[in-house]
């Protein structure tokens, strides 16, 4: 894997991002806006699941639509940011933790949407909501820790 990470870091795209004054900050802004859409949508949805009111305040399809748009921003921008420092990040335990937490968040959402999102399983849905909120806060925290 070291060879792959070296190749990524030595790529012309990564070099251009590193050498540009404004490109890295611009990509970082796109990444942060995407995180707001993905995590914000997920957390708002989760809060609604935890609510004691029976009528949702926001249509879940609307939140999911914006979360998908956020993913379209987060994935490519995250890969571009990673490319600029692939060797160091691949050896950083915080980065590894962030990737693991992202995987767990994806698995949690997948299980929720294929098995739990049914009226008969409302208690289980709330456990998924709590896990989702904790995972997203942890993912964002890891992302911030990577900057230091």
From TrEMBL:
Superkingdom of origin organism: Bacteria
Transmembrane spans: 29-50, 71-89, 95-117, 129-147
Keywords: Membrane, Transmembrane, Transmembrane helix
The organism's taxonomic lineage, starting at the top: Bacteria, Pseudomonadati, Bacteroidota, Chitinophagia, Chitinophagales
Protein name per UniProt: Protoporphyrinogen IX oxidase
